[in-house]
Design brief:
The protein is α+β, with helices and mostly antiparallel strands and 139 residues long. Helix content is 26%, strand content 40%.
């Protein structure tokens, strides 16, 4: 899912402010991603802390965002893990009674979604695995 789609979704509007975007865009470009990359966002216990995973040609960019740092404003920190160092764990899907649950582990993060979000995460995983293998991203 493109970053612009996450912004437009509006689920956590307080977490995706213009101030955060002003810090996030240069960080993405510096780590080798486009300003509007294919990404996955994981929300923390509160919407003022979130992380994003971004596949780039060189590796997996992992970016952490803190929206409200007291007396400082937003903070963005990121790193790039080269593809030959990226650790991928299990990819599992369970379906029962009209419900689905998808789970995927990459680096130390477990991504899990249910029902309607399964297609979005499955599409992102396909992009990640293609980048990991050096293949073009699926359409």
């Amino acid at each position: 899912m493109l970053l612009s789609s996450w912004w437009a979704d509006g689920t956590h509007a307080a977490a995706m402010t213009p101030k955060v975007e002003a810090l996030l865009t240069p960080a993405l470009v510096d780590l080798g991603a486009s300003p509007d990359p294919e990404c996955w966002i994981t929300w923390g216990d509160e919407p003022t802390r979130w992380s994003m995973l971004v596949p780039t040609p060189a590796g997996l960019a992992m970016i952490n965002v803190r929206v409200s740092v007291p007396q400082e404003g937003p903070r963005v920190a990121g790193k790039l893990v080269r593809w030959n160092r990226v650790q991928v764990g299990d990819y599992s899907l369970e379906s029962h009674g009209g419900h689905r649950m998808l789970s995927f582990q990459i680096e130390s993060q477990v991504l899990h979604v249910v029902d309607d979000e399964c297609e979005r995460l499955a599409a992102f995983i396909a992009v990640l695995l293609a980048a990991l293998d050096g293949r073009p991203a699926p359409r």
